[in-house]
């Protein structure tokens, strides 16, 4: 039994290594993606194909399939309810709702647009990657159908705004904080890059989608909700910049992407990360580990996007403040033993998201301290 396990430990990585050129040899040029690192995907071609095959049968509904209509009366408008707000026990009507940070109100399920969008994003991503890796047209066909349903078909497409996202009953009909719910659209942008050249995704489709994202980009920058989110100092501001930069690159506005990412040096990294790597605004939350990792994920995404326009965020630091590297190292000791985490965390801490961030950043930080940390993660993942 031990001998068999030892053999599989040697053979499986070798097979994966040999398969890697096969996976990427089908494309003579690199895909036009901005955040997706395909070459770091450690799944086999068989697994990617399997995931895409399952996605073929996934139920993906349009934004107009919801029962409730937003205040505009137009079901094409995205709507959601603030997840951490609950009925007020001190008023007969339950209004205005009150905040219970980190505790999700099941009422939000009455407004399914967030879930509908997330399902669309993950399904399109699996199908597009499956097409890119295997060349199977049926995957591109289905991905194209879903994208047209959500962004191009006048009967079913989403309007390019988030006026009614994360509404708080009794207080407002939507707010800037809700913009974080479309951060998954950065994955749609990359998924479309994987469909390039497919007969299932035409030049007209591409132009239509770029037009949709141009309109959404304008709304993000010009609306009150968008301006409020831009001014946010925590993870909301981080992911606002991630969306602006990603969408700007997608529609060809490199100047806007560069300006946003240059501004992120002071506005996001220096403002959010202490010299020892702590992220104080995330540590205030009731799920401080989750939000620290989430914001770190956003900062790393900004650094990846910045690579596209020749801006270095990986190594940016000002005197007396922290940087991305130190933010990762601060969290590392607690990923293995969450019981030592000294801040509030009302749900179990999961190290997997942090592990993926740290391993990816290991390609940028080659110093001995960082590489020892990455090696310790890799050692735990070995069978």
Write a brief structural summary.
The protein is mostly helical and 383 residues long. It has helices at 2-24, 45-56, 113-134, 137-151, 185-194, 203-222, 224-231, 235-250, 254-272, 280-283, 288-307, 324-336, 352-361, 368-381; strands at 79-81, 85-86, 98-99, 164-167.
Q: What does it look like?
A:
The protein is mainly alpha-helical. The chain is globular, with a radius of gyration of 22 Å. The chain folds into two domains: 34-231, Glycosyltransferase (Alpha/alpha barrel), CATH 1.50.10.100; 242-383, Glycosyltransferase (Alpha/alpha barrel). The chain contains 14 helices and four strands. It is 54% helix and 3% strand. α3 runs parallel beside α5 (185-194) and α8 (235-250) packs antiparallel against α9.
CATH architecture of the largest domain: Alpha/alpha barrel
Report the order of strands and helices.
HHEEEHHEHHHHHHHHHH
Using the coordinates above, name the CATH class of the largest domain.
Answer: Mainly Alpha
Examine the coordinates and then state which fold CATH places here, giving the name of the CATH topology of the largest domain.
Answer: Glycosyltransferase
Largest sheet: 2 strands, parallel
Shape: globular
Strand proportion, as a percent range, falls in under 5%
Number of domain modules: 2
Radius of gyration based on Cα positions: 22 Å
Number of distinct helices = 14
Count of DSSP E strands? 4
Strand order, sheet with most strands: 1-4
Helical/strand content category = mainly alpha
Distance between the termini: 14 Å
